[in-house]
Write a structure and sequence with these properties.
The protein has 369 residues and is mainly α. It contains 14 helices and no strands.
Length: 369
C-alpha cells in the first residue's frame, strides 16, 4: 500500500475521483442551488455591463482624480459620457432611424432580390454542372432562403411578450448600472486589498500578482476590443458611404457591434453589406467586398497589433475552439464572454502552476539542506 501511494499518478488520480464524487453529490441536491442560480442570472447582466463600463471609464477617472476629488471626477466622467451619447443620438440618431425604417419597409423587395440573385447563380453553367456531377439538389434553395428570412421577421414581430420582457430588462439595466458603476469606480481600487485579507501573509505577494494579472487581462481585452470595433465600424461606414451603398449607417453599426466577437464577428457583421451590394448589382457587391478586405487588412496590420498587441497571448486556433464551445453553451452571450473568460481562467491556472513550482523548489532546497 505504501508503494502504491508513492506513485506519481496516485495523488492526481485520487483528486480526480474525489472531484467526480463531489460533482455527483452536488447533482443529487441540485434543487438546493436553484435560488443561487436565480440570483446569479439576475445579477450577472448588470454587473457585467457595469464591469465593461468600469474598464472603459477608469482611465478617465484616474486622470481626473489627480486634480479633483474622486466623486467629482466620477460625476464629470458621467457627464462627459452623457454628452457624447446625446451628441451621437442627435447627430446620428435621425438618419439611422430613417435608414432602419426604410430597410424594414423594403424588406420584401430585399428578400426577392436575394432570391433572384440565388436563381441567377443557379442558372450559371458551372453551378449546373456541379449539381449534375455531385447530385446536389438546390432548386428550392432560393425559396427556402426567402421563407427563412420572412419567418424570422414574422417571429420577431409575433413574440410581443419576449419584446416586452427584453425592454423591461433594458430599462432595469439603465436604472441599476449607473449606481453599480459608481461604486465600482469609487471602490474598485480597494477591492484587491479587501480580497487579500483572506490570504495568509506569506502568500500576499502571490495573491497581489494574480489579481494584477487578472485586472490587466480584462482591461486589455475590453478596452482593446471596443476600440478596434469602433475603428473598424467607422472605416466600413465611410466606405459604404463612398460606394453609395444603401443603409450605410445601419450596416456600419451592425459591423461595429458584431466585431466585438473575435474572429467570426467580422464575417457575420459584413455579410449583410455584401448581400445588399449584390442585390443592387454584382459590381457593387464586389466593390463592397473589396472595401471589407481593405478594412480588415488595416485592422490586422495596424489596429489590432497597436491596440490589442499580444497582451492576451491566445493562439487563433484556441480562439476558434473557445468560440465553438462558448456558442453551444451560451449562444451570443457565450460568443462575447468566451474569450475574456478563457483569458481570466488561463491567468489563474498559469499563476497557480507557477505558485506550485515555486513551493516545490523551496521544499527540495530545504530537503537538500
Amino acid at each position: 500500500m505504501k508503494e502504491l501511494t508513492k506513485r506519481k499518478w496516485f495523488v492526481p488520480g485520487v483528486g480526480i475521483v474525489m472531484l467526480l464524487l463531489i460533482i455527483y453529490l452536488l447533482d443529487l441536491v441540485s434543487f438546493v442551488f436553484t435560488p443561487l442560480v436565480i440570483i446569479f442570472t439576475t445579477l450577472a447582466a448588470p454587473i457585467i455591463v457595469a464591469g465593461v463600463l468600469y474598464y472603459l471609464m477608469r482611465p478617465f477617472v484616474h486622470f481626473g482624480s489627480k486634480y479633483i476629488p474622486d466623486r467629482v471626477a466620477i460625476l464629470l466622467v458621467y457627464l462627459l459620457a452623457a454628452g457624447v451619447l446625446t451628441g451621437f443620438i442627435f447627430l446620428i440618431g435621425p438618419p439611422l432611424q430613417q435608414q432602419f425604417t426604410k430597410l424594414a419597409e423594403n424588406l420584401p423587395q430585399f428578400i426577392e432580390g436575394v432570391q433572384g440573385w440565388i436563381k441567377d447563380v443557379q442558372s450559371n453553367g458551372w453551378v449546373q454542372r456541379f449539381q449534375e456531377s455531385g447530385n446536389v439538389s438546390t432548386g428550392e434553395l432560393a425559396s427556402k432562403v426567402g421563407d427563412y428570412l420572412s419567418s424570422s421577421m414574422e417571429s420577431i414581430g409575433s413574440n410581443i411578450l419576449t419584446v416586452i420582457t427584453t425592454i423591461t430588462n433594458i430599462v432595469v439595466l439603465l436604472v441599476t448600472v449607473p449606481f453599480i458603476l459608481f461604486y465600482m469606480l469609487r471602490e474598485g481600487d480597494k477591492l484587491p486589498k479587501r480580497l487579500l485579507r483572506f490570504t495568509p501573509d506569506k502568500y500576499e505577494s502571490e495573491g497581489r500578482k494574480v489579481l494584477k494579472d487578472l485586472d490587466h487581462a480584462l482591461s486589455s481585452y475590453i478596452q482593446g476590443q471596443l476600440i478596434v470595433s469602433l475603428c473598424v465600424g467607422t472605416l466600413l461606414t465611410i466606405g459604404y458611404f463612398i460606394l453609395g451603398l444603401q443603409y450605410p449607417l445601419v450596416l456600419g453599426l451592425v459591423a461595429t457591434v458584431t466585431n466585438v466577437v473575435p474572429f467570426i464577428g467580422p464575417f457575420i457583421g459584413t455579410a449583410p453589406a455584401v448581400i445588399v451590394g449584390l442585390t443592387e448589382s454584382p459590381v457593387k457587391g464586389l466593390l463592397v467586398l473589396l472595401v471589407i478586405v481593405i478594412v480588415q487588412q488595416i485592422d490586422s496590420n495596424f489596429f489590432s497589433p497597436q491596440v490589442m498587441g499580444k497582451k492576451l497571448d491566445i493562439h487563433p486556433l484556441t480562439v476558434i475552439l473557445i468560440l465553438l464551445v462558448a456558442a453551444n453553451f451560451g449562444g451570443l452571450i457565450g460568443l462575447i464572454l468566451g474569450v475574456p473568460a478563457y483569458a481570466v481562467g488561463k491567468t489563474i491556472v498559469v499563476n497557480m502552476y507557477r505558485f506550485i513550482l515555486i513551493h516545490r523548489r523551496a521544499r527540495s532546497e530545504k530537503q537538500q539542506i
